[in-house]
Amino acid sequence: MLFEHAKNAVLVGGQLLKDRAMSLRVHLKGRDDFVTDTDIAVQKLVREKLAALGEDIGFVGEENASNGPLNGDIWILDPVDGTSNLIHDYKYSCVSLALVRDGKPELGMVYNPFTEEMFSAIRGQGAFLNGEAIHVTDMVNMQFANISFGVAPGDRDKAQKVFKVALEVYRKCHDLRRMGSAALELCYVAAGRQDGYYEFGLKPWDIAAGALIVREAGGIVKTPYGEAVSFDGGQCVVAAGSGIWRQLAGIICDNI
């Protein structure tokens, strides 16, 4: 079964995140954009395991990404989502893998080896954490909601906008969280651990798996303007249950 083979590849690749020596071999891709030997090794291992399936499916990983539309059947991999966390031994890092068919995620999985948590979904079949069904919260009032956000660290020119929005969200919600891994933030919304999440400048490998998991857990994942999330470029993404999605998106739209 395709799902089980992909899951095994992610589980095996995820164990490499525990190799502390490898995660401390750090290279600079750009200002505030790091890659470790772990990122490279995980991508190589997972890609090889997927290729061994013999399926006619393309592959895009963060460490070999190029701009442009993603057509047909594509594996989208983030070998380490939360690289800065990994470097600092923060233990909120994961492997994120999705199969996208003609722009729509068909299956997705996000694995944090430090907590041994595997979040997963197949389109139309629900969302799961280690095999147990998960659901978004039924929160309807932003005043009582915990919201997580990201700061688009690779584009600090957006910092003023990012923190202006964060301040307004903070004024209207119960509290803010920031984990430093888009894939895990999405999965925490799916599992009901937080009520909503948003971030600017997210790329396909950041969100392809997590977006499917949130939707299959009963949540909404769209741009703040209500547009469908695409997997061919950077964008702002808002994820939450239906009870507060419009409230959260509205605050963002009013302050961009």
Question: What is the chain-wise order of helices and strands?
Answer: HHEEHEEHEEEEEEHEHEHEEH
Task: Tell me the CATH architecture of the largest domain.
Answer: 2-Layer Sandwich
CATH-level-4 superfamily name of the largest domain? Fructose-1,6-Bisphosphatase, subunit A, domain 1
Provide the gyration radius in Å: 17 Å
Structural class label: alpha+beta
Number of strands: 14
CA(first)-CA(last) distance: 44 Å
Outline type: globular
How are the strands of the largest sheet arranged?
Answer: 3-4-5-6-7-8-9
Percent range for helical residues?
A: 25-40%
- How big a fraction of the residues is strand? 25-35%
Verbal overview:
With 256 residues, this protein is α+β, with helices and mostly antiparallel strands. The protein has helices spanning 2-14, 20-23, 37-51, 83-87, 159-172, 182-190, 204-216, 245-255; strands at 26-30, 33-36, 58-61, 73-81, 94-101, 104-112, 117-122, 127-129, 132-133, 146-149, 175-177, 196-202, 220-222, 235-240. Helix 5 (159-172) links the parallel strand 10 (146-149) and strand 11. Helix 1 runs antiparallel to helix 3, helix 5 (159-172) packs across helix 8 and helix 6 runs parallel beside helix 7. The longest helix is centred in the first third of the chain and has 15 residues, at 37-51. The model has no long low-confidence stretch (mean pLDDT 93).
